[in-house]
Amino acid sequence: MKKIVCVAVVGKVNDPLFIHDYSGGSEENRLKLNYIVHCSLDIIEEKPGAKKVGNDMYLGLLYPTEDYKVYGYLTNTKIKFIIVVMDSTDIKDNDIRQFFKKLHVLYVQTTSSTFYKPNSKIESNKFLNNVTTIVQTL
């Protein structure tokens, strides 16, 4: 069973830069996951830790749904990382923190490329493959 079913990177002005569905589900499920990611943006804005970002950018559990748990991470540059995890998995908080740190490093490497246009969608196959690799290791 897959633990992480969706990974999203959202820009400063809440524009989706990268959203990938790892659930292998239907189009309806993909839309549901996109909706969950979109709803989590409001929660990130309201979260007290989101106003002052220090060394720890991990926001923790944003909210649970009937089937999923949603976790967030906010960079110093206000880029948001969101993952949707199956509710039935017993994933540890520290593992999620480490996942976000790895995702942050991948994001920085990808957006530092001279071929990346700032604030645009991340369409790099290398980024997708690297994210998929860390999703599978969790």
Write the SSE topology.
Blueprint: E1 4-10, E2 16-21, H1 27-46, H2 48-51, E3 58-64, E4 68-74, E5 80-86, H3 93-111, H4 125-137
Helix pairs in contact: 3-4
Keyphrases for this structure?
138 residues; Beta-Lactamase; five-stranded antiparallel sheet; 4 helices; 25% strand; globular; TRAPPC2L; Trafficking protein particle complex subunit 2-like protein; Sedlin; Longin-like_dom_sf
Short account of what is shown:
InterPro entries: Longin-like_dom_sf, Sedlin, TRAPPC2L. With 138 residues, this protein is an alpha+beta fold. It is built from 4 helices and 5 strands, in the order ββααβββαα.
Folded structure, characterized:
This protein has 138 residues and is an alpha+beta fold. The protein has one domain: Beta-Lactamase (2-Layer Sandwich), CATH 3.30.450. Helices cover 41% and strands 25% of the residues. It contains four helices and five strands. A hairpin with a 5-residue loop joins strand 4 and strand 5. The protein is globular, with a radius of gyration of 14 Å. Pfam families: Sedlin_N (PF04628). One of its GO terms (biological process) is endoplasmic reticulum to Golgi vesicle-mediated transport. Belongs to the TRAPP small subunits family. Sedlin subfamily.
